[in-house]
Amino acid sequence: MDESTERMPLRLWVSAVLGCPVDRVQSWVDTFNKERLCEDDIIGTSVQAYLQAANSEREEALYQPFCAMANRVLEWARDHVPGLPTYPIPDLLFVRNDPVVVDNGREEGDNRDADCKPDIVLISQTTCNDLENRPKYQQAPPRKRHKTTGVDWCDIFSLLELKPFPTSRRAAYLVGLIAAWSSKVRGEEPLPAPSLVASGSRPQRPTPSSLQSPGVPLLSEPGTNSNRLKRKPEPFVTEGANQSRKRPRAKRNYLPEIYESDYFLSEKCSVAKEFEDHMARYALEMLSCTRGTRLFFFQCLVVGDIVEFWYCDASGFVRSYQISWVREFDKFAAILVAIACCDYAHFGLDIPNLSPPAPDLNPSIPPMSLTGYSTTMRHPTLDIDVKVTLGSEVFTQYSLVGRHTCVYDVTTEPPNDEDETYEERCQRHIVFKKYKPIESVISSSNMDHVFNQLLDCLHELRYEVNMLHRDISLSNLMYEMRGTVVWLILNDFDLATRLDEHGRPLGATGSHRMGTLPFMSVDLIKHPEMLHLLRHDLESAFFVALWCGIRLPSGQKIDAARRDVLLSWEQHGLNAILKAKAQIFANSDSFFQLVPGEIPISPEFCQYEMWFDGFWKVFFDGYQKLADHHRRLAVIQRDLRVKRINENQAEGLIKAANSKFNFETLNDAVTYTKIKAALESCKPDLATYVPGFVSEM
C-alpha cells in the first residue's frame, strides 16, 4: 500500500478521475449554497439520523441515513441545478450492501477474500430490480436470502466504506460537529472545530437534548446572535491550500490538517490501517473479478464525517486529501453529482478496440463479461480483415498491481461465405494455443523433469533473450503433451522486463517488489527496493516446487499440518509470510531438519526429500554468504560509530566490500549450473520408490 499509493488535492482528483472541470464543480457548490440545499427536509433528517447513529457503536446504523442523503442530493440536483447534463446512467442509486457478500464468480472452495461485504454500493435501479431473478438468489434457502442477493462485482459502479469514529473523544467531537451543522442550516458562521488533543478533563457524553431526533431542529446555543453574518462558502478551487505541504507517509491522518487534531493519529487507535486494508481488498476484487470489463475503479472511504476518495488501477492507488462532508456539505454534494455525471469511460467500463455484442445495450446494466465482444484484425498472410469474437473466460490474473491479464477463448469468422481458404478456428488467445495448468499433471513421476525445464527456460530467457520473467508462480506454469512427455510452458509475461548489457531493466520500472507473494524470494520480500535478479526467479522456482511437494496431487484431501503451512504463505500478513519463509533458510544445517515439522512433504513426494535438500542447499549457502557480507558491513558501521574510522574511510570500505560481492549470484553460490548439478546428484530413484514404474525420460 505505502509503495503504490500517492495523495493529491481533492480538486485535482475530481478533475482527473471524474473528468469534471473544477469551475463546473465550483458552480454547483455555489448553487447548493445559494439555494440552501442543506435545508431540504430529507437531507436534514438524514444528516441528523446519521449524527445520532455516529454516537453509537453500531456501524450498520450509519448506512441507511447516508444512502438517503446521497440519493436525495442526486435527485435534488437533477431538478434544481440549471444546465446540469443528463446523468449518462439515469437510475444510479446508493444502496446498502452489508451484510451481503458480493459474488466473485470463482469456483466453490476458492476462498481468496470471499467475504467481501462493502457497506454501500453504487448500482443502478435496473440491477436492483433484477437481483431476485438471478440463479444465486433463487437457489439460496429462504432464511439466507437477505444475505444472498446475487450482486456481482460487475454490477457495482463504485462503493463506499463507512466507519464510525473510534470511541476515544468521540462524544466531544460530535458535539462540535452537530453545532457546525446547525450553524450551517441557520446560515451562520460555523463554530470552530473542537480540539481533541489538549483536553485536560474527560469529555462529557452528549445529552439527549444535544442529539435531537429527526424532524426536530438541531442543537442551538442559548444566547447566540441570530443576526450573524451569513457563511461564505469556501471555494472549491482553493481546496487543499492548507494541505499542500508534504505529509510523512507513516502518518495516516483521517482529519484535515486545518482541524489541528490528531484524533486518528493516537497510538491507541489501530483502525486506520484496517480501513486501508478494506479498501485495498475491494480494489483487488473489483479489478480481478470483473472478467476484464473494468480498467480502473474508484471508491470512497468515510470515517465519521471525514471523506477521502480512492482511484485504483493496475499501477496502484491515488488518494485524495480528506474533507468533512458535514462541515463542507455543499462541496461533498457537488462531488456526488460529479460522480453521477460519469459515463462508462469514467467508471472504467469503456473497453477500447472492442465492440459490444449489441449496439443498443442498456447503459444501466454493466457487462458481466466480455463474452460476445468482437474486434477486427488484419490477417497476416491473406491480407484480409477477420472478425475475432471473444468466447468464454479462461483465466484472470488475481493481483493488486500488474496488468490484470484476462484471457478468453476466441472464434474467428471468414470474411465471406465464398472464401474457403480461411478456416474457422478456436484458440485461447489470438496467438497462443490453449494450455493446461501444470499443477493438474505434476506427479512423482515427472516433477524433476518439469522443474529442470523451468530452470532451463529461466536461464535462456536471461542470457539469450536478455529478459527476466519476475513472476514465477504456480498459476503461470502451463503445459502441453508432446507425445508422452509433459512439456512446460512459461506463461504470463505481464511483469517481465528486458535487460541491458549490464543486466539492468530497460525503460521505466516500478518501485515495488515484483512477483506473487507465496512464491516470492525472501530477499525481495525483505527488501522491496532491491533490483530484481535471476536468482530471485530461481528461488521462486524452488518455492513453487516446494508448494507442489506439500499440496499436490490435486483432488486429494490435505491434512491440517500441510494446510497450515500453505496458509502461512498465502493468507497471512507480509511480516508473517516473511517470517515463515525466512525460517526455511535459517537455523538449519539440513533440509531434513525441516521435515516434517516446518515442511510436511506430501506422501506422494516423499522420495523427493533428497532432491528438495539439494535444491534448498544452494539457496541456504547463498544466504549464508549474504549474511557474512552483511556482518562485514556491520563491523565497518560499528568502527564508524566508535570513531575508529571517519565517514570517508567507512564509505570507501563499504564501497570496496560491495564491489567484491556478487549480488547476482551471491558470490557464485546461486547459479543455474550449481542448481542443475545439485538436482542431478539428488535425482530420486523413482523405480525404487514407485513399484512397477518405468521412466519415460
From TrEMBL:
PANTHER family: FUNK1 11, FUNK1 6. The lineage of its organism: Eukaryota, Fungi, Dikarya, Basidiomycota, Agaricomycotina. It comes from Somion occarium. This is Fungal-type protein kinase domain-containing protein. SUPFAM superfamilies: Protein kinase-like (PK-like). Residues 278-412, 417-547 form the Fungal-type protein kinase domain. Residues 201-213 have a biased composition (Polar residues). It holds the Pfam family Pkinase_fungal. InterPro entries: Kinase-like_dom_sf, Pkinase_fungal. Residues 188-249 are annotated as: Disordered.
